Amino acid sequence: MSEVRYKRILLKLSGEALTGVQGFGIDPEIISGIADEISNAYSLGIQIAIVVGGGNIFRGVQGSSWGMDKAAADYVGMLATIMNCLILQEVLTRKGVPTRVQTAIAMPAVAEPFIRLRAIRHLEKGRVVIFGGGTGNPHVTTDTAAALRAAEMKADAILMAKNHVDGVYEEDPKKNPNAKHIDSITFEEMLSRQLKVMDPAAVSICQQNSIPLVVFDFARSGSIEKIVMGEKIGTLIGTAQQATGVSK
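^ thats the sequence. predicted structure below, dont judge the formating
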């Protein structure tokens, strides 16, 4: 493990990452490929926690646009994340990766409640832990849930998976194909330039706890392994020392 840069990571997966060309639900081939990437990284001996979004099933903003109460819509979105967690758990288990799901909303029939010390113990015993239900509170994104769980787990880094976007750009690369890619940037600069990577509350948690964030294209095979081993993939966001490649 001496050559491994990040020994305990939190992987943030958007719900959209689980969809295929249909743009909703779960594509079996996509989730199997994601599980393979996680399994390959797990084989390095690192500890892996995962936070999954629910946008492939339901988004709180979607419900609000229908006239639903914002809090009620957010709770439905939290349930959607748990559905994704349980499916990902089954796929990982079939691939031989020991996995536990913990939820911020108590569902004892299907998963453990979130208990910080128990989650850390699972990681220490070599189990992948998937966190569902966000933070358990409305008006909070799964980005913030990922940052919060990373801080609670004392993760070495958050790996933020994007769909066919290999990091952070000065402008939206889908709108401007000539947009400049950013290799590394500090939390302060990212906030001042209003780059939309994750919500400001999540960035604040990462900043306060000096947890670097790596934004990468999950579609590129082997990316998690390469990042964990210290290879420069995607965009690194961190403190001034982290962004310049100096160990924290």
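The chain has one domain: 8-243.
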